[in-house]
Amino acid sequence: MAASGNPCGACKFLRRKCTDDCIFAPHFCSQDSSACFAAIHKVFGASNVSKLLQNMPFADRSEAVVTVAYEAQARLRDPVYGCVAQIFALQQQVAILQGQVMQAKALLARSMVTQQTFGQPYHGFADHPSILGYTDTTQQT
Amino acid sequence: MAASGNPCGACKFLRRKCTDDCIFAPHFCSQDSSACFAAIHKVFGASNVSKLLQNMPFADRSEAVVTVAYEAQARLRDPVYGCVAQIFALQQQVAILQGQVMQAKALLARSMVTQQTFGQPYHGFADHPSILGYTDTTQQT
């Protein structure tokens, strides 16, 4: 039962009595939680989510409800790929960025060689060893 | 019904008769598909996945089964975060890589200024305008 004495969003959606030990009540107490629960129920089923929550410590349940709701809403928006579409997109973005970092490393290394060839002491990379993947040993005494 | 005449992996798991129009059969015909379907059934429920597949064109169903199986297996491995854990990890990786690219851009820009100050013609960036986000105009005639 929600703190207000009204049924929680899940029980309101399921049109059932909300008891004091309702597993959904602590996580579906806001006004718009019925709509969120509707998505969860449509994709996962109330019974499956209830079992999932029962099998984890209370402290983890809020996070689990958030991630289950996220997956459910993604699946309703994109029935074929759900939130896996976001995983694909992020993996692609990581690959592009890794390519840019590699390209930048090569350019920086080339630039460092050019400057050393022309006898200019270069101190820029010592502050950013993570970019080149190693520490600029020219700074060591 | 699977092409072999045996029940499909889904019907085998559900211990039901596999009919010619079984919605799962085209996607659960391999030997190990029963274990995959068990994960899907535990997380989403066979009925919910059946409805999901019925509401999309046949051509999309194989991809949908793959992504639903992916989400189900991730949720069994990590009941609290499921595959959302991977989204968080990838978002973090993107943020780190974006930081590295920004840092590299700043270093490359500084390096370009240094080399121009010392009167060295620098041709390196012209081949890689994407790194600096602009074309090296010093190459224009």
Automatic annotation (TrEMBL), chains A, B:
UniProt xrefs under Pfam families: LOB (PF03195)
Signal peptide: none
Residue ranges of every copy of the LOB domain listed in the record: 6-108
Cross-referenced PROSITE patterns: LOB
Gene Ontology biological process terms in this record: hormone-mediated signaling pathway; positive regulation of DNA-templated transcription
GO cellular component term, pick one: nucleus
UniProt similarity note: Belongs to the LOB domain-containing protein family.
PANTHER family associated with the record: LOB DOMAIN CONTAINING PROTEIN, LOB DOMAIN-CONTAINING PROTEIN CRL1
Protein's recorded name: LOB domain-containing protein
Source organism per UniProt: Vanilla planifolia (Vanilla)
Lineage: Eukaryota, Viridiplantae, Streptophyta, Embryophyta, Tracheophyta
